[in-house]
Design goal:
5% helix, 5-stranded antiparallel β-sheet, 357 residues, 4-stranded antiparallel β-sheet, globular, mainly beta, 33% strand
Length: 357
């Protein structure tokens, strides 16, 4: 999907999420990325000031090169108040303070209770940790709406739990998503490498609460998508190996559901207005020439673990694999498919009906 297509898709997703009337589906290009100001924009968030904020996975002025793309990624603002659609680059990552925010799974930022914006980079930071191009296991950062960035944590790509001294816990690496802020004011998130669930205090103190063992373990492994906090205070999430889990703020994990082989999840669950969670798989379900590993599906799961398949993608007009899900103000779930003969914007009614928009 081209960058301009992503901007159009994101514009429609914001419309469908209830920020604009659903009937007003006129597409307006708010910004165009050219490499120098970023490349590969991720999903947007709405700041307390009414402006939009996002990251680009590549581009900008940082000294990174990966797969032919230059730049370490950016944080940007799109004005909605003055000069509507004006794009301002707030920060260019430079390896030492992080690189590649959100790439290649492309998730979003977190709006903190303090009005600042929190995010994660998949590489960069402590260059003595992790090997690769560039080096570094990733960072967690805070950035003000004025563009002042503070690195809160540099990952080391190790994971162990010292029950006698939790403060000494090591932390995993390569976070594909920024942490979310819990009701207790602390931040919670996951790392892909080593497979951890961690807690971070607002000043950047990180403690590993749970380490996902392996693909053969019922708990699963490689949590890519961040968990979402439920009304009961627990966090609900998924793993790339194909499990849905519940985990407490103390790190006690319960596996709620296990998918078949080859069914993974890369996007966060969405809490519905009915108290259930909605999600999507990247594989499994229908297999055909368009998606030999499976076209994926949309599902719901209750906090108690009752699972329902709502729609199985065909790889045809409905596309393949959901790129992101949002809950609209009308209580329905909205999203976009990433690949397939058509990349589609869709609406899912909790009863199970999928409408291609």
């Amino acid at each position: 999907m081209k960058v301009t297509q992503w901007i159009r898709a994101l514009s429609l997703l914001w419309t469908c999420a209830g920020l604009l009337p659903l009937s007003a589906q006129t597409v307006t290009i708010l910004a165009t990325f050219n490499g120098a100001n970023g490349r590969g924009p991720n999903a947007l968030i709405l700041g307390n000031d009414g402006n939009l904020y996002g990251t680009t996975g590549y581009g900008g002025s940082g000294a990174c090169t990966l797969a032919g793309f230059t730049g370490c990624g950016t944080v940007f603002q799109i004005s909605q108040i003055t000069q509507r659609g004006s794009l301002t680059t707030l920060h260019n990552f430079n390896i030492a303070d992080g690189a590649y925010p959100g790439v290649a799974l492309g998730h979003t930022l977190t709006l903190g209770q303090d009005g600042n914006i929190y995010g994660a980079t998949t590489q960069g930071g402590d260059l003595s940790a992790c090997t690769g191009t560039p080096k570094g296991c990733g960072t967690i950062y805070k950035i003000t709406t004025g563009g002042t960035l503070t690195t809160l944590h540099e990952f080391q790509n190790t994971a162990s739990i010292d029950i006698c001294n939790p403060a000494s816990n090591e932390d995993g690496g390569i976070p594909y998503n920024p942490p979310i802020q819990g009701s207790d004011g602390n931040f919670y998130g996951t790392t892909y490498d080593q497979g951890t669930f961690y807690q971070m205090t607002p000043d950047g103190q990180v403690a590993t609460l749970f380490v996902f063992p392996s693909y053969s373990n019922p708990a699963g492994s490689s949590p890519v998508a961040n968990p979402v906090q439920g009304p009961d205070g627990n966090f609900y999430g998924s793993t790339l190996s194909g499990t849905l889990f519940k985990i407490s703020a103390a790190g006690d994990l319960t596996t709620l559901y296990t998918f078949g082989t080859g069914t993974g999840m890369t996007i966060p669950l969405v809490l519905g207005s009915d108290g259930n969670f909605y999600g999507a798989t990247t594989g499994g379900g229908t297999t055909n020439a368009a998606c030999p590993a499976g076209c994926g599906e949309i599902f719901s799961i209750t906090p108690g673990g009752a699972f329902s398949s709502l729609h199985v993608f065909s790889g045809g007009a409905d596309g393949t694999g959901a790129a992101e899900l949002f809950r609209g103000s009308d209580g329905n779930i909205y999203g976009a498919t990433l690949i397939g003969s058509n990349s589609a914007l869709f609406q899912v009614i909790p009863s199970g009906t999928l409408n291609t928009l």
